[in-house]
Design goal:
- This protein has a single domain, classed as Cytochrome p450.
- The chain is built from 17 helices and 13 strands.
- Strands 1-2-3-9-6-4 form a six-stranded mixed beta sheet, sandwiched between helices. A three-stranded antiparallel beta sheet has the order 5-13-10.
- Helix 5 crosses helix 12, helix 11 packs across helix 12 and helix 14 runs parallel beside helix 17.
- The chain starts with 7 loop residues before the first strand and ends with a strand.
Amino acid sequence: MRPDDLPRFRQSPTDPVFMADPYPAYERLRALGPVAFWEELGKPVLCGHAEVSAVLRDRRFGREVTHLASREALGWAPIPERLAPFHAFEAHSLLEREPPVHTRLRRLVNRAFTSRALAGLGPRIEGLAEELIDGFSSEAELMEGFATPIPLTVIAELLGAPIEAGPQMLAWSHDMVGMYQAGRGRAEEDRAVAATEAFSSFMRALIAQRRRRPGEALIDALIAAEDPAAEGGGRLSEPELVATCILLLNAGHEATVHAIGNAVRLVVERDLDRAAFGGRGGERAADECLRVDPPLHLFSRYALGEVEVAGLRLRLGEEVGLLLAAANRDPLAFPDPARADLLRPGAERHVSLGAGLHFCVGAPLARLEIRSALAVLFRRLPDLRLAQAPRRSNRWHFHGHDTLRIAT
């Protein structure tokens, strides 16, 4: 089948009811089969766990395709001049590149982002959680007062960025990810470009400062990182270094903030075992929360040639959407998939952190933050409940909460 031959699916991704709870729509989509054409997104989408997992790992699909054919040859419109700064930044991002560039960048980042760099972060995360809870009164706003500052502080400290710049970096990050939101308009695009330029300028200044006075943070390791297998030693270029540091800062908190908020709501509303996050079972509990209500719902891939998946035939440059959150609730992969079971065997097979070539480089850190922060939260506040109805964020691509007010 070609895309025009697929079953059609209609659902506005900006509908408030859908953004608050997209899972019923995913079930309607699943009833159409493993692949359907989502009219409002303008592309075919996959919702089955087997199919999504396969494409994430299939080297015939990629995050970029212009290394194989020009935009003109693909029939794509030129990039508008006003968006050029954002796309120029993305051209150096690990997240958006394919081999051989991705291979070189990932190897250098992995060398700096080692398990040794993460060693000892558990106590730091727990200490941060304790400090924040100490500041709670009988009611507290969990997103602003707990879920956001923990990942933001940890990634800033790990990278070597100034903690006092955290609020500004957070604002830039929010504006940049606006480029990935469904239904974005001119205002969102202008904010994303302005944030990209400002954040890049900030990072170039920080890099120059660290070159003069290096320390032992991740940014210093990235500055010094060399890949002997690459021609000329393979240092990260400055544009690559800027893009990599910003990507790590953005990815290091943007998704984890919502993962923590989603997990707390899930545990409290469904009356799950709050002690599950402590001890050896903590990572499985974190994975089950990531499976049932993940922060990232959609990723896309381009066909890197003539390829077929789930009976769908794609040509070079054609795009397919991968519905991670729908795949996580596929009954063929997870029995009784809507039920949250913090002891579920195989919960780690979720696709919330991707898979294959672009598997999240910060996955170990994300899991550590979720289980460590929630272990402290539920130990300190065993009777925690929701003080009022939670308010979901007015966006779908990153699925989380604007407010999650709790009573302690």
